[in-house]
């Protein structure tokens, strides 16, 4: 058996917002806004765990492991910028 594994490019993560209608675009923005708030909470908790672990046990691999989640959560914010640019291009009120 041969397995072909292809690494996804950054293009595969980007959503095509220009194909959505106005209502769906605004609904997607509301969901993205909720995700942003949840990401901020998770980043705060992760940083709190890192600081507590560093003070309590010193710096180890498991102390710094939550920083990986912080990196992944901040990477996901690129879609929000693309979404806001599409809303601005269509002159839709999103704030």
TrEMBL record:
The keyword Membrane applies. The chain crosses the membrane at residues 36-52, 58-74. It comes from the Bacteria. This is FUSC family protein. Keywords: Membrane, Transmembrane, Transmembrane helix.
């Amino acid at each position: 058996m041969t397995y072909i594994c292809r690494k996804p490019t950054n293009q595969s993560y980007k959503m095509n917002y220009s194909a959505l209608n106005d209502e769906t675009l605004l609904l997607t923005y509301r969901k993205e806004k909720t995700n942003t708030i949840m990401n901020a909470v998770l980043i705060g908790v992760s940083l709190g765990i890192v600081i507590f672990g560093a003070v309590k046990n010193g710096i180890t691999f498991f102390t710094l492991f939550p920083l990986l989640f912080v990196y992944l959560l901040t990477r996901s914010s690129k879609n929000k910028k693309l979404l806001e640019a599409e809303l601005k291009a269509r002159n839709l009120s999103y704030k």
